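Chain and backbone:
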Amino acid sequence: MTRPRSQRGAALVLVMWLVAAMAITVAGALALARDEVNLASSRLGEAQTFVIGKGIARLAVLDRARARTSTNDDGEVDQAALTRVFKTQYQLDGFNIVATVYPASGFVSVAEADPEVWQQLLSGVGALDEGSAASLAQQIVETELEATSAGSGPSGSFQSFSRHRQSRSGVYVEQLLGVEGMNRAVYDRIRPSISPFNVGSGVDATVAPPEMRAAFGGGREDESSLDSGSKPDAAASGYYCVEIEVSTSPSEGFVQRIWVESRGSDEFSAVRLARVEKPRHKTGGYSG
C-alpha cells in the first residue's frame, strides 16, 4: 500500500511541475508576443511619421508664407501671422498633427565660429560640465569641417544657388563625431539643436524651442519676436526648422524635426528639405 501511494504522490508532484513549467512557457510566449506587437506598432508609427513629416514640413512653410502675405477685409495684415514662430495644426487620415516652424536663427549653426556659443549648447543641452564643454567647444571651432556641395545643381533649377548662397550651404552635422573629445551620447543630445545651415552666428532665444531657450537665456516670444517687415534678417531668412508632432494613437505620438530652405513667399513651390531627422517618441520635450 505504501509504494503505490508514494508513486501517486510522485506522479502528482510531476504533474504539478509540468503544469508550472507550461504556465511559465505560455506566459513567456505571451510577453514576447506582446513586446513584438508593441515594437511593430512603434515601428509603424515611426514610419508613418517619417512619411507624413516630409509633406507636412513643406505644407507648413508654405502656409507660413501665405499667412504672412494675406490681409483681412480692411487690407490689414493679421499681426498674429507675423510671429516669427509659426504654429499650425492639421488632420490627416485620423492623425492629429501639430507643426511649428522655427527660424534657423533659433539654433546653433553647424558652422558657428564662436566657442562660447558651442559651450552654452554643450553644457545646457549636451549636459556637459563647464570645463568639458569649454574644451570641446574649442576643439569644434578649431576643427575644419568640409562644406557640402549643396546648390550645385543644373543652372536655372532650384538646386542651383548663387556662389553667395552656396557659401551658406551647411556642412554635414555628422562630421562633429570626428571632433576630438566628442562622444555619441553628447552628439545625440545636441544634434537636434544644430542647424545644418551656415547662416548667422549666435542664437536668437526669442524664436528658439524650449530646450534652446533654457540653454541660451530663457528668451520669451512676445512683441520682440514679431517681424515688423522693415528689418528682415537677410542672412538667416528662408532657413527654417519644422518641428512636427504626430499623434498616431491616443496613447502614442512622435516628434520629428525637418530642416527646410525656402525662397519665401514669391515662389510658394520652392521648398527644399535640407535634413530630415529620425522621428522620436513624444515626451515632455524634444527627445533629441
